[in-house]
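Lab manual, section 2.4: Encoding a predicted structure.

Procedure: take the sequence of the chain (138 residues), apply the prediction step described in section 2.3, and record the output as structure tokens. A sample record is shown.
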Amino acid sequence: MDNLLLMSIHTKYANDIFNGKKKYEYRKSTIGDNNLNKKIYVYSSGIDKAIIGYIIVDKVLCGDVKYIIEKTNPKDNISDYYRGALKAYALHIKLYCKFKNPITLSYLRKIDKNISLPQYYKYIKANSKLYSILMLGE
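Recorded output:
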């Protein structure tokens, strides 16, 4: 069994993704080719504090900030986010699926009081309680 990828995205941007308004997720590091065309679970890190669904990324653009802006035409100003970064990455979201019942942080802490959620992303191991919860939710 493969490990699962869990990515934190601020609530505002997660909502834009799951409402179909945002086609790219901007990052300072890549998720690696091995995570392309696989489910990436989304932890909405702002108000929601919940795993709200998953996305599938089919390609990752890499370049300087100017290149990423030219290729993706972002609605928000991303220059400040990338200030000082040598490379910029844009993850193209091919597909998204929002859960009917998000998995809240408070619920996760009832199951595992030591659970830690990522600032960027983390792998969920196949033998973990969170892995089982995510697999049951499908």
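Check your result against the sample. The chain has a mean pLDDT of 92.
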